[in-house]
Specification:
five-stranded antiparallel sheet; mainly beta; single chain; 0% helix; 69% strand
Length: 111
């Protein structure tokens, strides 16, 4: 794959999106929830295709997610959060479309 230096540059785009989340306690020690994000990104620079033609890249991203939170898990001062997100990026430039699975864990501390 040939990528010229004048290819799409990081930060040279405009973007908009929406995100919604809903969480519900299942009992005293677990909270479950879901989220959905939809985003649109328009790049300012041309992407050079395999045949040498230039195209302005436009991406739609859909990210549904699930989360489980264990509140006050560590001595009433910290929560444990487990997240899963399915990221589906659909681009008008075929080699920039992708699907990604993200698993994250975080600890939230209270002072």
């Amino acid at each position: 794959l040939r990528v010229p230096f004048e290819e799409t540059q990081p930060g040279r785009y405009w973007e908009m999106g929406l995100r919604g989340e809903y969480f519900r306690p299942l009992n005293e020690w677990v909270i479950a929830g879901g989220s959905m994000s939809i985003g649109y990104r328009a790049y300012s620079d041309d992407t050079i295709l395999d045949d040498g033609t230039a195209k302005l890249r436009r991406d739609w991203t859909f990210i549904p997610g699930l989360a489980v939170i264990f509140p006050k898990l560590f001595k009433q001062a910290a929560d444990l959060r487990l997240d899963y997100k399915y990221e589906d990026n659909r681009s008008n430039v075929s080699f920039d479309s992708y699907v990604d699975h993200q698993f994250t864990t975080s600890v939230i501390l209270r002072f």
